[in-house]
Specification:
Layout lengths: L2 E5 L10 H10 L4 E7 L5 H7 L5 E14 L2 E10 L6 H27 L6 H8 L6 H10 L6 H6 L15 E2 H10 L3 E4 L7 H4 L2 H9 L4 E5 L5 H13 L3 E4 L19 H10 L12
Parallel strand pairs: 1-2, 2-3, 3-5, 6-7, 7-8
Antiparallel strand pairs: 3-4, 4-6
Helix pairs in contact: 1-2, 4-5
Amino acid sequence: MRIDLHAHSTASDGTDSPAELVAAAAAAGLDVLGVTDHDTTGGWAEAEQTRPPGLTVIRGAEFSTSLPWGEHRISVHLLGYLFDPLDPAISAEQDRLREERLQRGMGIVERMTADGIPISQEQVLDIAGDAPVGRPHIGRALVQSGVLRSVDEAFASLLSSRGPYYLPKRDTDLVDAVAMIAAAGGVSVIAHPRGRGESRVLTAERIAGLAESGLRGLEVDHPDHDAAQRAELAELADRHGLIRTGSSDYHGHNKKLRLGQETTDPEQLERVIAAARDTTAPLGPVG
């Protein structure tokens, strides 16, 4: 069984519609796909309605969270699986984050246009459509306008968190998000804990504390992790009884990642399902 528990659609910053995403997953030989758009459950219905026979769709979302690090806060992405999408706390927080993303995105574009970069807020909003506005949408506008050649290039330069146009957003506290997902019947897994800035704040001691606070898993196998990081994370997960997942973090043509590039062991998926409430069971056959 081939299981990829982390993929994005046009409901957030992917380039495949939810229908295209599940079709691509089936074509890639996947048996299980996690639909985990940023701060939204907006792709679930279409993914469910168009799911090819034999493909299981695990409903999820990637929450924008952060942890304190000295006088600053460090962004940490948290995957939530099989939670109740109508839970009032999650609905309210996703609405807040959507507005936070919009204001941050429009502010970045305003800074760029003030410097003569030929993109516009209207262009970015058109690219985003109904999705929460994210930096990848600005990256696509930069490519569309001929400023840069790729979204990856945009993140390495104009959209870098160290660049002159960057603006932060007010993310959910990670510990609060873990509790929120649990209260809604879901299962929390930290995304790419060694892939980006997270490694600074997600020390072994911090992960131990998060496990005690209700964190359920770590995304061990991810394209951003090297062999040593995977071994470290697997050991930490086993030490603290955490679920170990593996995922591609597929975004369509925004990033050079393939569906099924990294996968989750079936026994680990069963642990995810067992940890969630029966009312939020996965769609389609498992096993």
